[in-house]
Amino acid sequence: MESLNLNLPLLMPSQAQKHVTHNEALVALDAIVQLAVEDRNRTSPPVSPADGTRHIVASGATGEWAGHAGEIACFLDGGWRFFVPRDGWLAWLADEAKLIVRKGGAWQSVVENFSSLGVNATADATNRLAIASAASLFSHEGGDHQLTINKANATARATLMLQSAFSGRAEIGLIGDNDLLFKVSADGNNFVEAVRVNNATGDTCLRSLNSGPLGGLRNAIINGRGTINQRGFAGGALTGYGYDRWKAEGTGCSVTVTAGRFSLTGAISQTIEKSGLPGSVVTVSVDAPSRNMTVTLGTQTGTIPSGAGRRHITLTLGSGEADDLKLTLSTSLETTFADVQVERGPWPTPFETRPAALEELLCRRYFEVAHPVFSGAVVSGNSFRAIAPYTVAKRVVPTTTVQEVEFSSNVPTTVSSYSISGLSRVTGAHVYFVSTATSSAAGVQLKVFASAEF
């Protein structure tokens, strides 16, 4: 008879030579209790083993060890005895300096194969490793040291989460794609992207600097909020230009701007002068579009999806695109949106709010309302000229048209003729007129549109 766990021989009643059975059990205990083996990778016995030497027999063993893979081989009294281990047995592996355990019919490292580990903390199914301490140290072993966080695929996450009272406040890593992201949160639920580093180019996108807008003039669009309206466009049906820099496409559209937010049915466009964008990755973004929007930049087309916050499409422009680059925004149904922005790079940054005076000056390069004034003696048959200097040099010599003519009370009541001549991009609006009066002091003010648009 044998014991149930270690298979030790048991003494029988009235057994002769009890010492033999007793000694055999002691020898077995000496071999398998406080087990320490030399190695586990041998397939044949050592040539001159010391008495009491123990090994774990490797798979594919030959000779005296054949058929004993995984068992404990102990050299005793000039021969090998074998002990069949059970799950849960522990052994110290001398050549690898590690503790191993028998589990599932195989030997494996105790430390390497923990399903979970808590150090002064409780591990669980999600947090397989939990540590509660003032600090954690991961050190080198004579050279480099690398901490690796691996994820299953590009859309998964490989991140470092920083928490306060177990509520997330910052997340750093690969969050849903392969760009390096830095996100922050005030409540642990809603995270704001602060920094993005493109994994292919190294381009870095920052949300803001010093809680303010990023470097100036990165938005290639002028009047992205539609609030500059020198023509006095009332909104609604439009052919040609309405709000500064914005032009109706095709047979016309309906567009109205209210408090910086566009309402558009149809298509509007803006041509970016000498954009410098051909051959670049460019992002077109708007704020909170109520419907999907079709975007065409040069020859490239994409869709900005509807939704809250900044919504965008990133396009790669060929080097053969025209440098004067045309942006077209199209909607088949009425769509509201705000803050149109075109910028170099693969990701949208916050809308660039420029000072109102600067935004209007940028607009005036393409369109300006001039007010020539004439004051003096009027003699019948003579022609007179009034000049209104431009505040900004125009893109090209502008086309000028008189919109209004106003007279003071003591001037002739008719103007027989006048003509407009755009003599320069910079000197101003030139107005010529002929009076039918015989003689009088005259005061004439005119409203002139000077357009240098595309």
From TrEMBL:
Family matches, as Pfam families: DUF2793
Record-given protein name: DUF2793 domain-containing protein
Superkingdom classification of source: Bacteria
Originating species: Mesorhizobium zhangyense
